[in-house]
C-alpha cells in the first residue's frame, strides 16, 4: 500500500497541492469565498448566464413540471420531450443534422472516442488538448499520437507515417489554458484528405465565438456533418450544465447504440434541459453579451500591454499571463488574493513544466471598473 500522506506532503512541498474554496454566493464576479469577498476572474461563465434569473426561473418551472430526477438512462425512459427539444435546438444552433445530449463534456469526449475507435486505430491530438480528450485515448484503446500545438504541417507528417486503420483527429476549438484558437479549417482539410474523423471540442468557443456565438467551427465557416464532429459543453458559455455532440445522422445513431458514457448513465434532469433551452435563447438573442465581452478583453489587453505584462496570443476571454516558474505563479496569485482579486495559478501537470501561468477569464457580467481594478492589482503585485 502506498503511503498517501507522504505523497500528499511531497505535493505540498512542490507547490502543487490543490484545494477547494467554499463559495457561499452565486457565480457572479463579486463573490463570497471562504467567508471573504473577492472579485473573481476565474469562471468560464463567459456570457454571464450562470446566475441569470430567466434561466433560474426556467429551471424552477421545469422542476414543477418534470420533478427533479430523470429516473433512468436516456434509452430507458429517461429521455423526455424537454431533452429532445433541447437536442433539436442545439442542432439548429450549430447547423448540424443532429445533436445528442451527454451528462458532461468529459463523458461526451470519452463516448465519441470509445464509439468510433478501438485497438489498432490511431488518435491524433494537439499537444495542448484538454485532459478529457487525452483520456479518450486510454478508454478507446487507440494509439495516441500527439502533434505540435496548432500545427497542421506536423499533423500531416504524422498522418502520412501512420498505417491504415480508423483515424480520428481531435482538437480543442479554443485551448482552455492558452485561449488561442485551433486552425480548424486546416485540420478539416487534412481530415478529409486522410479519411479521418475530426472531433472539435468547443467547450470554450460555444456561445462566445463566431456569428451568433455558434462557436469556432461557425467562425471558420464550417458545419458539423459527415466526418466532422462537434462537442459543445453547456456549463461554460451557456451557464448551466452538461454537454452535447453534434454531427451527422449516422454518427448520432451510432453514439446512441455504442457510446458507453451515454448508454450506461442516468439522463440529466429534464428541468436542467429546460434551463439550458432558456440559456440558449438568451445566447442567441442577446448579442450584446458577446460585444461587451470582446470590449472588456480589448480593454484588458491594452492596459496589460501598457504595464508590460506577459500577455499571450489570445483574443478570446481566456487571457493567460505566462509566468513560467510554478512558485512565482503561485506567489503572484496569492498577492492578488490579498488585494481581493481571485485569479488562479495554473501549474503543471495541467500545463507543461516551466509554463505556469495566471489564467484570467472574463465574463459579460464583468464591468470596465472591475477590469481596471484587476490591472491596478496586477501592476502592484508585479512591482512588489
Ligand atoms: C471543461 C472542458 C471539458 C469538460 O466539460 P465538462 O462538461 O465540464 O465535463 C472538456 N473539454 C474542454 C476543452 C473543457 O474546457
From TrEMBL:
Homodimer. This is 8-amino-7-oxononanoate synthase. Pathway: Cofactor biosynthesis; biotin biosynthesis. It is an enzyme of class 2 (transferase). Substrate binds at residues 18, 130, 350. Belongs to the class-II pyridoxal-phosphate-dependent aminotransferase family. BioF subfamily. Catalyzes the decarboxylative condensation of pimeloyl-[acyl-carrier protein] and L-alanine to produce 8-amino-7-oxononanoate (AON), [acyl-carrier protein], and carbon dioxide. PANTHER family: 8-AMINO-7-OXONONANOATE SYNTHASE, CLASS II AMINOTRANSFERASE/8-AMINO-7-OXONONANOATE SYNTHASE. GO terms for molecular function: 8-amino-7-oxononanoate synthase activity; pyridoxal phosphate binding. Its cofactor is pyridoxal 5'-phosphate. It catalyses: 6-carboxyhexanoyl-[ACP] + L-alanine + H(+) = (8S)-8-amino-7-oxononanoate + holo-[ACP] + CO2. The modification N6-(pyridoxal phosphate)lysine is found at residue 236. Residues 38-378 form the Aminotransferase class I/classII large domain. The keyword Transferase applies. Keywords: Acyltransferase, Biotin biosynthesis, Pyridoxal phosphate, Transferase. Its EC number is 2.3.1.47. Signal peptide: none annotated. NCBIfam families: bioF. InterPro entries: Aminotrans_II_pyridoxalP_BS, Aminotransferase_I/II_large, AON_synthase_class-II, AONS_Archaea/Proteobacteria, AONS_Proteobacteria, PyrdxlP-dep_Trfase, PyrdxlP-dep_Trfase_major, PyrdxlP-dep_Trfase_small. GO terms for biological process: biotin biosynthetic process. It comes from Thiohalobacter thiocyanaticus. It comes from the Bacteria. Pyridoxal 5'-phosphate binds at residues 105-106, 176, 204, 233. The keyword Transferase applies.
Amino acid at each position: 500500500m502506498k503511503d498517501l500522506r507522504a505523497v500528499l506532503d511531497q505535493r505540498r512541498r512542490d507547490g502543487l497541492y490543490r484545494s477547494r474554496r467554499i463559495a457561499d454566493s452565486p457565480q457572479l464576479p463579486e463573490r463570497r469565498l471562504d467567508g471573504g469577498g473577492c472579485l473573481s476572474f476565474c469562471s468560464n461563465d463567459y456570457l454571464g448566464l450562470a446566475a441569470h434569473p430567466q434561466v433560474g426561473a426556467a429551471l424552477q418551472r421545469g422542476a414543477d413540471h418534470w420533478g427533479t430526477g430523470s429516473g433512468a438512462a436516456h434509452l430507458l425512459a429517461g429521455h423526455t420531450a424537454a431533452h429532445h427539444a433541447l437536442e433539436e435546438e442545439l442542432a439548429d444552433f450549430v447547423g448540424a443534422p443532429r445533436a445528442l445530449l451527454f451528462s458532461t463534456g468529459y463523458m461526451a469526449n470519452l463516448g465519441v472516442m470509445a464509439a468510433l475507435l478501438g485497438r489498432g486505430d490511431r488518435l491524433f491530438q494537439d499537444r495542448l488538448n484538454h485532459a478529457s480528450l487525452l483520456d479518450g485515448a486510454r478508454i478507446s484503446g487507440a494509439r495516441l499520437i500527439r502533434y505540435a500545438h496548432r500545427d497542421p504541417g506536423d499533423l500531416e507528417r504524422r498522418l502520412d507515417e501512420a498505417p491504415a486503420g480508423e483515424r480520428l483527429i481531435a482538437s480543442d476549438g479554443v485551448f482552455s489554458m492558452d485561449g488561442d484558437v485551433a486552425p480548424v479549417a486546416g485540420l478539416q482539410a487534412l481530415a478529409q484528405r486522410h479519411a479521418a474523423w475530426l472531433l472539435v471540442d468547443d467547450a470554450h468557443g460555444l456561445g462566445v465565438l463566431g456569428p451568433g456565438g455558434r462557436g469556432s467551427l461557425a467562425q471558420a465557416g464550417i458545419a458539423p456533418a459527415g466526418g466532422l464532429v462537434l462537442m459543445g459543453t453547456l456549463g461554460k458559455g451557456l451557464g448551466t450544465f452538461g454537454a452535447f455532440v453534434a454531427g451527422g445522422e449516422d454518427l448520432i445513431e451510432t453514439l446512441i447504440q455504442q457510446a458507453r458514457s451515454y448508454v450506461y448513465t442516468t439522463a440529466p434532469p429534464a428541468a436542467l434541459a429546460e434551463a439550458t433551452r432558456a440559456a440558449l435563447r438568451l445566447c442567441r438573442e442577446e448579442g450584446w453579451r458577446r460585444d461587451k465581452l470582446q470590449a472588456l478583453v480589448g480593454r484588458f489587453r491594452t492596459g496589460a500591454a501598457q504595464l508590460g505584462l506577459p500577455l499571450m496570443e489570445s483574443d478570446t476571454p481566456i487571457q493567460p499571463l505566462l509566468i513560467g516558474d510554478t512558485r512565482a505563479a503561485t506567489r503572484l496569485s496569492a498577492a492578488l488574493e490579498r488585494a481581493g482579486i481571485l485569479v488562479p495559478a495554473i501549474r503543471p501537470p495541467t500545463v507543461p513544466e516551466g509554463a505556469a501561468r495566471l489564467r484570467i477569464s472574463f465574463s459579460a457580467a464583468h464591468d470596465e471598473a472591475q477590469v481596471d481594478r484587476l490591472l491596478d492589482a496586477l501592476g502592484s503585485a508585479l512591482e512588489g
